[in-house]
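We emphasize that the prediction below concerns an isolated chain of 511 residues; any contacts that depend on oligomerization or on bound cofactors are therefore not represented. The input was used exactly as deposited, without trimming of termini.
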Amino acid sequence: MIKKAFLLISILFLVLLSACSGGGEKTSSKGEGNTKNNGENESNEPTQVRIMSHFFHATPPSKDGPIEQEIEKATNTKLDIEWVSANNYEDRFNVTLASGELPDLMLVPDPFSPVFRKAVEQGAFWDVSPYIDEYPNIKNGIEEIAWDLTKMDGANYVIPRPRPTEGEGFFIIRQDWLENVGMKEPTTSEELYEVMKAFTEQDPDQNGKDDTFGFVGDINDEDMGGMGNFEGIFTGVNGEWKDDNGELVHTVFLPETRDALEYLANAYRDGLIAEDFASLQNSQTKDIFKAGDAGIISEKAGALQDYYDQIVKIKPDFEFSDLLPITNINGYNPQGTGFAGANAIPKSVPEDKMKKILAMINRWMDDDVFILHKQGIEGIHHTIKDGEVVIDTDKMTKDAVGDYNQIVYVSDPYASSTKPTFPEDVQKLYEEIQDERAKTSVPNIGTGLYSEKGVTYLPELRKNIQDLKTKIILGKEPLTAWDDFVGKLKDDADMKTLTKEINESYAARSR
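Result of the prediction step, given as a C-alpha cell string:
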C-alpha cells in the first residue's frame, strides 16, 4: 500500500511541480493583490485560503458560521475549509497527497510518515524556516523543541501545532494512601518499590480487606505503554535512543534497561502491579484506578478531573489534591515534544500567497482572535454577568467551536497539568509541581529521526522486544533470555544499519 502511494505521489507531483512557478520565485495570482508587511495584503481584498483539517465533534463547524466570519474579518481572508472526520483523516490525507490537488494549507497528522517524507523529498512543500522570524506569534508561540524535532534535513516543511512540553504523563499517586501507610512521596526507584509494597500489603484504603495493589498500567505491542515510565527512571531516557557523547545508542543495549526489567519482574512476582497488566486496555487501567484498587497510575495531571469525579463517589471525603503528581523519580520525568501534528503549505502555492497564509496564522494567534476558540461570540456563545464571562457550553459544542483549534492553536503552557475546572488550590499546586518537573524533564530526542531500514525493520524489532519484556516480567522467561537477545542483536546487520541511519538523521537535523 505504501509503495503504491509512493508511486502515485512520484508521478503526480512531477506533474504538479512542473506546473508551479519555478519553486521559490515570487509570483502573483489573479485576485491575490500585492503584498507588504510580511505577506499581509496591501489592498483590502481578502486572501482566498483553502484549508483541509480534521474535526472531532459530531458535526464540523458550519460553513460561513459566525466564528468563521469573525476569523475571516480579523485575518482579511476568505476561508474554504474542508473538514474531514478525525476517524478517517489519515486515509483522506494520503489520497489527497497522491492526487496532486492540494489545498493551500493542510493538516499533516504525522509529519514523519514515509508518504509525507517522500512528498517533501520531491519538493512538494515549502520550507518555512527562512520566513518564520518575520511572524513573531508563530515563532514564539511554538516551542523551539517542536521546530527542532520536526526538521527534515535541517529544514522546516511543517508548522508544528503547539502543545505544552511540560506535564507529560508520569506517575500519579494517592496522597491519602501515603498518609494512611505513613510514607512520603517517593523520589527514588527504591522508595517507589517500598510504596508499592505498602499499598499492596498495608490496607491503604483502610477497608479491612486485602484488595489493593501498588501500580496499574498497560502495555502494547510496540512499547511499554502506561508502564514505560519505569524504564525511564532507570535509563534516564525518554524514548528509544540515548545520546552517548554525540552517538545515539538504542536503549535495548543499556544495562539500565535490564535493571528496569528485573525491577518489574520482582514487582510482578511480589504482586505489586496488576496481575493481568499484559492484557489490559488503557481504558481498563483507568477504571481500575478510579475504582480505588490501585494507588499509582501513569497519567497527565490535566486529565484527573474524571478520576476525582469517580473516586469521590466511593470516598466522599476524598480531596482533589489526594491525586498527587509525582515530581520525579531518580531525577527523571518525561518531557513532551511541544506539538501534535503539523500544518504544511504546498509548493503549488505561490510565494506571495504562502506569506499571506503565514500572516493569517500569525494574526489568528493574537489574543483577540484566538479567544473566539475559548468563549465564542458574546450573545451567541457566552454572556457577561457581573463582569464575568458565562459560557454556553451546549452552544459551543453544537457549533463545534473547539474544532478551530485543529487549524490554529495557542498553547497554554500548563494545559497538560491543570484545567479551569480544578479547584484553585489544586491548580496552584499542580502548576508548582510542573515548574519543579521542568527542572528534570527529559525530551525524546528520537522523535522524527528517519531510517529507511527502520520503515520495515523497526515494527518487527519493537514487537520482538516488547514480547520478550512481557514474558520476563510475567516470569515466563528468565532474565538471562534478555542477555541472549541483546547479545544476538549486537551482531545483527539490520540493527547496525538502523543505528547508522538514525545517527545520520540525527546529525542532519542538527545542521
